[in-house]
Structures are given as C-alpha cells and as structure tokens.
Amino acid sequence: MTSSLTAERVRRDIEVVAHAGLGLDDFFAETVASLTRAVPVDAVCIGTFDPNTVLLTSARKYGSLLGEDHRDPDWGLLEYGQVEPSAYREMVAARRDAVGLNLLNRGATERSNRMSQLMIPEYCFHDEARLVLRDGDRAWAGIAMFRSGAGCRPFDADEVAFLGSLSRTLAYGVRVGLLSSVVATGAGSGASGPTRTGPEDSGVAHMSPATGHGPAVLIIDRGNEIVQMSAGSQERIADLASGPNGAAVMNPIYGLIGAARRYGSGESSVPPRLRVRGASGMWLVIHASPLSSADGRVGEVVVTIEEARPPEIIPLVVEAFGLTARERDVTQMVLQSVATKDIATALHVSAYTVQDHLKSIFDKAGVRSRRELIARIYFDQYAQRLNDPLLPSGSFAAADGEL
C-alpha cells in the first residue's frame, strides 16, 4: 500500500471529483487517475450496472486493456453464467464492497474460472481487486483493477480495505454522472483515454430517438451465436453500439445470456433484465429468457430489446437523485400533478412539511420548481410524446406508421 498520506490525498481528490457534477466519462477518467496513485495497477475496467439487477450496461477500459474488446462476450458469459464469490452480483448480495482475488482464494487466483479461463491465459493478469460502487442497497457500477505477471505483487488487505472505503463516495459520483447524461444538451464529453464498450450512457439526450418497429427478438443458440432475429433487430442492435468492434455491440447482451441460463437452471432468482440508454438517446429494456427444445436440450436463449416504458425508467432517474423514501413519495405525487395540500393530506403531514420535502427534492435534482422537476424526469424520450395516449401497460400508444 502507498503511504497513508498519499491515500488520504487520493481520498480527498475523489471526494471533490464525485461532487463536481461530471459526466460519466470524465468522472471515471478522473477516478482512475486518482485511484492508481494509491493502488498501482496495470489495467482497469469499469462497468456500469442496472441497479435493480446488477447486470452490465456499459464498460470503460484503461491501461493495458485499452482497445481490448474481442473477449468481452466470454467475460459476460463467465461473469453472469457462473457462481463465484468475487462476481459482482454475489458481492452485492453479500454486501461486500471490495475483494482481492489472491486474498480471497488464499494465493490460488486460478480457482476463479474468470481468472483461469480468461484473465490469466489471455491477458497475463494474475491478480484482480474488485470494488462495488454501492449506495445503500443499490450498486451503480463496479471497478476491476489488475496486476500482470506470474510474479506480480498481489493486492494486500490494506489496499482492498482502502478501495472498499471509497464505495459510497464513488457511487454518488456515478449517480451524478447518470443525471448529467439525462439532461445533457450536447454530445458526449469525449474524455480521451478509455475504450468504452456497450451502449452510450452520457451526453446524447439531444438526439432524436430512433423510431422502432416494436420489440427486437434475437434467438441465441448453445454456441452463443445469433441464429434468428426479427425484422428491425439490426436497428435496435446498432443503437446499442458505441464502439467500432462488433463484440462491443453485444457487450450487455452476453451478460444477459449467461444470467438467463443460470435463471433457467434455478441457480438465480433474479430475472435477467436491464435498462440501458442507446446511442440515439432512447432508453431501452433488454431481457432474456432460457429456451428448451422439443427434445429436451437446453442452452438456447431468446433476447428481447424494446423501448422502455416511462414506469420502468422514471424510478431509475428518481433513484439517481438520492431521495429518501418520503421524498420519493412526494415526487411520485408531483408527477401526478397532486397539489401540495392534497399531498399533505395523503401523507398525514402539514403543508409546511411537504414544502420542506419539495425544497430538498429540488436541491437534489438541481431544479427550482415543480415544472423543472417534471421536465428533468420526463426527459426528451418521453417529453415529445406526453400528449400521446398511454396503453394499459404504461407504454405510449404507437404513432401513425409504427407497428
């Protein structure tokens, strides 16, 4: 571990960066630059999650991983298709913020299938430290840090503890970055340095959402190849792409495939589903289900990609504000245009208390009025359609010409 003085300087730097209102690209780049002063590494990979399912929505890579995308599908299948104590979902379930593979496996990092089948033979990474960026029960991202070479110095207990102590601060920075992407008016921040795979999740809200033709349906065979797809699927897949490598397009999807197989075998009780923002600025929901053939063979998976309904995305945005339970109740009623006195009656509090809640909500959301709060939550994907009728499912009715 670096000196305690350096560690404290890094901690203060990260506090400043987390509260600076940066978009995700800039925030993660600054975070890596700071962290690696205290915990030297050869490579870093940061993945953002859907906080409901801890499934990957995007990845950014630094150091010797820069530009390395071709094994991303294998990583997704290993990470979400098997049970390991160091997998992000298992770490979140155990409320474990940081681990070191060498420490966890008592010097035998190869006990991890992720290490023995991918990281060691492909990249010569012989130790990994992982950090979950968690705020309460919600995990917003994960950071994996690697050291190369069979004789590399393993991550020690002090380094792992230091990383774990930064979990909540870094989670706050991710929430701020997510909100920055929701209301951005220009193109992405374009921070130089990392390779980013997976869908765009910053700075594209000004773009017009792609017009779709209903859900895209993909059939994945046991060899993890797409064998069938519905009409319009290429458009949906293209909207998930942000990098030139074809594997990058499928980055979130392969995690879903692995998770679907675990779900189908009864090893997981969490339905494989995530919310993610496409390159067009449109929020999409991707979910996967295991299939079984007539002869009883298993392994095939159906993946569906469709436009997210407002009820699916609004809670994600509201969660990113970091509201208390009571503030979320007030916000829900504001979205329903309930008057202050009626909110007070429903919650059995005074109108002055409701006003106090509203002031706190406005501060956290960075707005000054109910109108601005509603505009910030109903961002451009839905704002232009707010006068359209809603179906019973919560989806907007199809516009003329849409299926």
Largest sheet: 6 strands, antiparallel
The beta-strand count equals 11
Span between N and C termini?
Answer: 58 Å
- Name the CATH homologous superfamily of the largest domain: GAF domain
- Identify the CATH architecture of the largest domain: 2-Layer Sandwich
GO biological process, one term: regulation of DNA-templated transcription
Domain HTH luxR-type: 316-387
Protein name: Helix-turn-helix transcriptional regulator
Keywords: DNA-binding, Transcription, Transcription regulation
Characterization of the model:
It comes from Gordonia lacunae. This protein is an alpha+beta fold and 403 residues long. The protein folds into 3 domains: 4-197, GAF domain (Beta-Lactamase), CATH 3.30.450; 216-309, Beta-Lactamase; 311-383, Winged helix-like DNA-binding domain superfamily/Winged helix DNA-binding domain (Arc Repressor Mutant, subunit A, Orthogonal Bundle). The protein has 17 helices and 11 strands. Strand 7 (216-220) and strand 8 (226-229) form a beta hairpin. It is globular, with a radius of gyration of 22 Å. The N and C termini lie far apart (58 Å).
Write the layout of secondary structure elements.
Elements: H1 4-18, H2 24-38, E1 43-50, E2 55-63, H3 72-81, H4 88-93, E3 98-100, H5 101-104, H6 113-123, E4 125-135, E5 138-148, H7 157-165, H8 167-182, E6 195-197, E7 216-220, E8 226-229, H9 233-240, H10 246-249, H11 251-264, E9 273-277, E10 283-292, E11 298-307, H12 310-320, H13 325-335, H14 340-347, H15 351-365, H16 370-377, H17 380-383
Antiparallel strand pairs: 1-2, 1-5, 2-6, 3-4, 4-5, 7-8, 7-11, 9-10, 10-11
